[in-house]
Design a protein that fits this description.
The chain is of the alpha/beta class. 28% of the residues lie in helices and 15% in strands. The protein contains 18 helices and 20 strands. An 8-stranded mixed sheet has the order 5-4-7-1-11-13-2-14. Strands 16, 17, 18, 19 and 20 form a 5-stranded antiparallel sheet that branches. Strands 12-3-15 form a 3-stranded mixed sheet. The relative contact order is 0.17.
Length: 627
């Protein structure tokens, strides 16, 4: 999402962007955009946040992600549109915001909108999927015309629950080859080998189950981190929900009880603790065990990436394959006192994004302005054009859409300029957003950068236009002051909110928050019952993530019209400072909500105006549900 002063309308936004693409075509020559048709490997993870060595965590054992990064453009700040599996995947694969698709939870489908793999099937590619790509895949030949096997992942996921010895489990018995993600990878490799041998263009989707719960991993990957537990040490306040944050932004937990590991998961847990209260911190041991299992899962997945890359090396496919790797959303592993997704914080909303194309001049380079998962669809359209005219106008989407599908104009921006574009000198762009070498800023440096929270008006936080923040200053610009938008739907019973308001204070007025959050996932069907609807408060949180800050506004939601109430005062607001941030600061920030501090009042007002203008002019709402 792009903003300069007041946001233009969506059509105006696309016009400006497409105009810039045409200028780029003129400057660099049509050849830069006439990408050869290549094979396409689309890799999708479940609950994977950027917890890898390529994203600044040098203690993570992820050598194969590093291999792929050397042949890709790495997007340091990519964000999902909603931190829930089904609606996030619907949004990514249709290129539409959740408000346009109309999915916010697990009850609905992306249909009749078109998922982009259907474009490849219609264009003559052999398309196959293994694992979890769409949340409710099914055997749809309009999408997967060659093969589709999800391994019964939903039932498999549930069947693991009674087998778990603890909240995380390292398995010393089950062979690695019997884990679903190994099996998904094997099938994908086998299909790509066969189609390559037949010289057939393919689009293969590979959707991994891990690191989604249950975090059940082969013991050998768990054992790799036995001497690395220092990497998960956290200050107490980092494992507790911020007192300054509104309760509506809290969401916990994956389970109601945390079960501690016993003998590395070899025996059933005998020690457990209830979790989930808003003011209840996670202990360091809980966080360490969750992070240990999560890291082991990521390294197990890294090994599967290694198997894929070995196959590509063996078949010499690098000049004939495009790879997009990402995740549906992230996950809290005890940070901010939560073990869950469903939030608007960085832990839930930030995802890895790597895009490799054989014609890219930027292999191994990084892009550090915020981008969004809805940018993937228009990027794919531009990387696989039917003709140069189609790649610019997006006509290929409408022309190739299968029958009974609706192909609305993608609502993201194409990232193709920073993947396929030729180097363009831009002396005004900073050489890097981070300190040289990517080392985390010292406490003294962070204090210097954020100085003024209590003195300067607005703490020096600026949202005026600034130069694009690209790691490689030879990359084309995607615009100024980019931001990503994530949303989250919440409902609560009015009586529960009143009870908390009346009884949730300590003597002296400080909130105890010794209660479970009253907020839950809304049910679309409740809107049909006036009695249920009138007894609830329903809000939608919209979170704008800039390079320098995160602003979140929780707006009352019209359950009948399915739109936010823009003229009603917001239910809650949040403002978090990201100035001076490095990759190593991930999971350490967003601990203080600044929105009510007097010195930030003007900044908060300006962010609110930007958010409301964006919602009013740039979002196409699906409208009322029928039936």
């Amino acid at each position: 999402t792009r903003q300069e002063g007041m946001m233009p309308s969506l059509s105006g936004h696309l016009t400006v962007f497409l105009g810039s693409v045409l200028v780029l075509l003129t400057l660099t020559g049509t050849a830069a955009w006439q990408a050869n048709k290549t094979n396409f490997l689309f890799i999708m993870y479940d609950d994977l946040r950027p917890e890898m060595s390529i994203y600044g965590n040098q203690d993570m054992i992820t050598p194969n992600f590093e291999r792929l990064a050397k042949k890709s453009v790495v997007f340091d700040y990519a964000f999902c549109q909603i931190a829930v599996c089904n609606p996030s995947r619907d949004s990514l694969l249709t290129g539409l915001r959740p408000d346009t698709v109309g999915t916010y939870g697990f009850q609905w489908s992306f249909r009749p909108n078109m998922a982009f793999p259907a474009l490849f099937a219609k264009a003559g590619y052999r398309t196959a999927a293994y694992g979890k790509i769409l949340h409710w895949d099914g055997d749809d030949k309009n999408i997967w015309n060659h093969d589709q096997w999800d391994g019964g992942w939903y039932d498999y996921q549930g069947a693991e629950i009674p087998l778990m010895n603890a909240s995380n489990m390292a398995d010393k018995i089950k062979p690695v080859e019997e884990f679903r993600d190994y099996m998904f990878t094997s099938r994908a490799i086998d299909t790509m080998r066969k189609l390559h041998a037949r010289q057939q263009l393919f689009m293969v989707g590979l959707g991994f189950k891990l690191p989604h719960l249950q975090v059940h991993v082969p013991f050998k990957y768990f054992d790799m981190y036995r001497d690395k537990q220092h990497m998960w040490n956290r200050r107490k306040k980092e494992l507790k929900f911020p007192n300054s944050a509104p309760v509506v932004s809290h969401k916990c937990c994956g389970h109601d009880v945390f079960r501690f590991m016993r003998e590395d998961g070899g025996k059933k847990a005998v020690k457990s603790a209830p979790i989930g209260k808003v003011g209840q911190p996670f202990t360091q041991q809980m966080h360490t065990e969750l992070s240990w299992g999560y890291a082991a899962a990521v390294t197990f997945l890294d090994a599967q990436i290694g198997r894929l890359l070995d196959m590509i090396d063996e078949l010499e496919l690098w000049q004939n394959i495009t790879i997009v790797l990402t995740s549906d959303h992230g996950m809290h592993n005890g940070e901010k006192g939560m073990w869950q997704k469903w939030t608007t914080f960085d832990e839930s909303t930030r995802v890895p994004l790597l895009i490799s194309h054989p014609n890219s001049p930027f292999h191994g380079q990084r892009y550090s302005d915020p981008v969004e998962l809805i940018d993937v669809f228009p990027t794919v359209l531009d990387m696989f054009p039917v003709s140069p005219a189609d790649s610019v106008s997006g006509k290929s989407c409408q022309r190739l859409a299968p029958d009974m599908n609706v192909c609305l104009p993608p609502q993201g921006k194409s990232l193709a300029p920073v993947i396929l574009g030729t180097p363009v000198s831009d002396p005004s762009a900073p050489s890097a957003r981070y300190p040289q070498g990517g080392a985390p800023a010292s406490k003294k440096e962070m204090k210097k950068r954020t100085k003024g929270h209590n003195k300067k008006k607005g703490g020096g936080l600026v949202i005026a236009p600034s130069p694009p923040q690209r790691i490689n200053n030879q990359m084309p610009s995607l615009g100024k002051d980019l931001f990503a938008v994530t949303q989250s739907w919440r409902c609560a019973f009015k009586k529960d909110l009143r009870r908390i308001e009346e009884g949730g204070k300590r003597p002296g007025g400080k909130e105890e928050r010794d209660f479970m959050s009253p907020w839950f996932e809304c049910d679309r069907d409740d809107a049909k019952s006036a009695q249920k609807r009138d007894g609830q408060v329903c809000v939608m949180g919209y979170s704008l993530r800039y390079a320098v800050a995160r602003y979140t506004i929780w707006l009352h939601w019209d359950r009948v019209k399915n739109v936010p109430q823009l003229t009603v005062p917001p239910f809650a607001e949040e403002l978090y400072d990201h100035r001076g941030e490095t990759l190593q600061n991930f999971t350490h920030l967003e601990l203080t909500n600044l929105v009510h501090r007097p010195e930030f009042a003007e900044v908060a007002r300006r962010f609110k105006a930007k958010a409301l203008h964006f919602l009013e002019h740039d979002v196409k709402f699906r409208g009322p549900y029928n039936g």
